[in-house]
Amino acid sequence: MSNLRSKYQDRRREFLKQGACVALLGSGTAAMSGKLQLISSAMAQSSGYSDLTDYKALVCVFLYGGADSFSMFVPTSDAEYNQYAASRSSLSVPQRDILGTDSALGFHPSLSRLHSLYKDGNVALMSNVGNLVTPVTRGALLNNTAEIPSDLFAHNHQQAQWMKGHSSLPASIVQSGWGGRMADLLQDANAGSVLPPSFSLFGSNSWLPGNTIQPLALNTNNGLSLMSYLDTGTSANNSARSALHDSVLGQNYSHPLKQQAADTIARAKLGSGQLRSVISANQNFETGYNKGSRLAKQLRMVATLIAGRDQLNMKRQVFFVGLGGWDTHDHQTPRLSGLLTELDSSLADFYATMDELSLTDSVTTFTASDFGRTLTINGDGSDHGWGGHQLVMGGAVNGNNLFGQLPDFEIAGDDDSGDKGRIIPKLSINQYGALLGEWMGISGSDIATVFPDLVNFGSDWKDGMELFNG
Q: Which fold has domain 57-230+285-457?
């Protein structure tokens, strides 16, 4: 198996270059831009990230359905709270129940453990983040001069645009996500690994696929199963079959597509065996997780893969987990309380596990969602909105801080896109993601490639935000 591993690793980079060139030569003018992008990404395999020696992981927690973050995080000053309560009516969190902070936003009472992590400096809040092409004002929206993303307020389109991070184009045109574009660059940091740096515990999504690196989708119970007929631990016949299989895969093929087929199967075989070994060896955490929570199970598997980082030869890893149910058009108050309780315990347990592993400074977890929700009430729920608040968790985070500008909570006020309390975002997905990408070690020039709309927010796109310590 070691010879097969060596041959696969030597041939992989060469195929990326050859395969991209073959694809370009066989394409028409209409496809030229995409193929050039593929070649650029293939060449980026030698991008200079191989000299990264520390370990870092980024974990995206996607809240499917459009999380009502205006109830998750609530203004604390009397003036702002009164404006908020007037707009939200019966959806507003009672002021007496808010878990207070030293900043302008407090926490929903169901987020008590995350509130404690915030107070301890391990969680920060990002105010009013959303899908933007350029900065937008209410006036420009009302006179139809604003450049806005396509298909606002539609679940599937906004999920894809959030994850792909290229708001100036329809989601169907963009083939990669910003997590995947980071993985394309950071793969070089994982010298000796046969696995990609990107893992999904919530099936397929638009955030993790890169232009060259494709993620692994894993089962929360056992990761990635071995091929049953090649599992050498079950029978002597399988051992013989596996050895013959290695011999076939180890041949040198002159055609790059044949070589890619052999290398892909070799990668799957080596990777599945590695993963089973890592998962088996890294199950004994002191932190208990809620076994009835799908999110908790996903994060526990993420912790297992992080614990096995050295066995997997990983210096950089990117993970995706998800939790559905956030489309709270009705019965919002009780539904949201249950969702927030699950989110609170799952994230807090994950942080505690990173503390067990002495990796709190090396792992950053952040939330994202389709969109925020309206301030106005829709029966006994809320409707699809635009901007919303997000949280970032980790030991490297400059916590106990609120970043960004708190919106005006007045209906038809300065930050309302109309008269329903659909709040216009102040911070773009590209700004939010770029802060996380820089922490992962992505260089300034490559940040602009990973986040192509960042240029629309000027050279001062950080706006003084120091999300991370040091």
A: Alkaline Phosphatase, subunit A (3.40.720)
